[in-house]
Design brief:
Strand content: 25-35%
Strand order of the largest sheet: 3-2-1-4-5-11-10
Distance between the termini: 30 Å
Order of helices and strands: HHHEHEHEEHEHEEEEHEHE
CATH architecture: 3-Layer(aba) Sandwich
CATH class: Alpha Beta
Helix content: 25-40%
Number of helices: 9
Bound molecules: S-adenosylmethionine
Shape: globular
């Protein structure tokens, strides 16, 4: 198993709390995902479903399957969706063309081999199906990127090593998880090479409620924080 997957089992308790306590999932990510999921075909496969917040929201009453590497998180999923413990980007257990829509939220930036993830989703999703991905925006995941304030107290974003592939260990509860950075162009080109057609792309900042709650986010209203994409096969 890779380092990041081991870490996720050991930070499972933190993630359970995070989903409950951080309103960003409800306020910002839920509406973005809802928009990207409009009209996508079943069956749905959620890659890296964690404790199941999106299976609860989008899987009920639909044909849906979840997969995740962390058994501790999968044990927390309530609902009817069949669950498979597996380490991405390997999905060799799924027949080619068996899936209508593959969806993955805050997972692709935890996967070292993004090309395999993108190619494997193209294999398992049937023609006319979709791939929906939300990740932290690459402007945010670039090593050494971050906000800075000029003497007039205007907030700017430092790009850091945006143009290079990179990785960083980010705090998660009492541990860390490894996050993989790729420039947006690298992700879009890999998807095009795998046969995915870009249908919708959303770049979004932290929402106003999140910025109001946390004064240190002030001034980041125009800075990309999340990236959401729907591709079609
Ligand atoms: C940030 S959480 C997101 C969970 C869920 N998608 C959500 O938005 O609530 C990341 C999830 O990816 C899973 N994960 C990380 N690396 C993985 C890998 N290589 N294979 C399968 N799951 C992985 C973790 O166990 C965790 O559940």
């Amino acid at each position: 198993m890779t380092e990041s997957v081991e870490n996720w089992d050991s930070v499972a308790e933190w993630w359970f709390d995070e989903v409950q306590e951080d309103p960003v999932y409800r306020e910002d990510i839920g509406p973005m995902l809802e928009k990207l999921m409009i009209g996508v075909p079943e069956p749905l496969l959620e890659l890296g479903c964690g404790e199941g917040q999106w299976l609860r929201r989008f899987g009920r009453g639909r044909k849906a399957i979840g997969t995740d590497a962390s058994l501790s998180l999968l044990r927390g999923v309530d609902g009817e969706a069949p669950l498979v413990q597996g380490v991405l980007p390997e999905v060799g257990w799924i027949r080619s063309g068996a899936i209508g829509t593959a969806v993955s939220v805050f997972v692709l930036d935890l996967i070292e081999d993004h090309q395999r993830f993108i190619a494997e989703t193209a294999r398992i999703v049937r023609a006319g199906g979709a791939l929906v991905v939300i990740i932290n925006h690459p402007a945010f995941t670039a090593p050494d990127s971050g906000p800075f304030m000029d003497p007039d107290l205007d907030v700017f974003w430092r790009w850091g090593d945006y143009l290079e592939d990179g990785r960083s260990d980010v705090p998660a509860g009492t541990g860390t998880v490894t996050m993989y950075h790729r420039p947006t162009a690298t992700l879009l080109t890999a998807a095009a090479e795998a046969g995915w057609s870009l249908e919708e792309m959303i770049e979004a900042p932290l929402g106003p409620a999140a910025i109001e709650r946390e004064p240190s986010y002030g001034g980041q209203e125009s800075i990309p924080r999340f990236l959401g994409v729907r591709w079609r096969r």
